[in-house]
Amino acid sequence: MRLFIIVLLSTLFTFSSHAKTSEWELEKEEEDINLKIFTRQVENSDLKEFKGEMMVKTTMKTLAALLLDDQAATQWMHLCEKFEIVERTDELNAVIYFINGAPWPVSDRDAVIQSSMTQDPESLVVTVAINTLDDRLPKDDDYVRIARMSGFWLFEPKEAGQVLVTYQIHANPGGGLPTWLANSVVVDTPYGTMTQMVEMLKLEKYQQASVPMIKNVQ
């Protein structure tokens, strides 16, 4: 079993395109891995949108292999406690259920998402789009269902074997979140996820992975 997250490239900006947003503000930087975390306000939302960007020396197949490995998701996705495939339509498309932990006394969150990975045949840019499917599974009283989440991963090949990795998400986490937690989540989530991603990409099983649907830059 393998995969990570949703919908077609044309839906990447579905939520953001329907909401007014402010300019991106730099919140955190990790020079060792060229990582920058940005946030911005979204109209009628208490939670900011986040964007993480970093340059990584890797290949498109290695990145794809990591995101397609659903069994490894809890090892590197920040606060992810469960991540499982509900339904797979093909190698690059799946419905996924996940649970994110939260510090006491805040309730843990869960969500059902549909995912689709695509690659532009000319630029070789890989996109993994993310959106919720709230009504796909019944709610579990032990968790607060994430009401809405949309965003994407974007892998853009650059010179000298470098790839610009972008991770951008906006969500309505459902229920009430304390201000201190809401402010930290939008920074800690991309920071924790992307710093761990760098370590996972070093593993031989991803560097040597065969992902026939995705092409490397020649």
From TrEMBL:
GO cellular component: cytoplasm
Pfam families registered for this protein in UniProt: START (PF01852)
GO molecular function terms attached to this record: lipid binding
Gene3D superfamilies per record: 3.30.530.20
Family annotation (InterPro entries): START-like_dom_sf, START_dom_prot, START_lipid-bd_dom, START_lipid_transfer
Keywords: Signal
TM annotation in the entry: none
Keyword Signal: yes
Domain START: 19-186
Taxonomy, superkingdom: Bacteria
Protein name, per record: START domain-containing protein
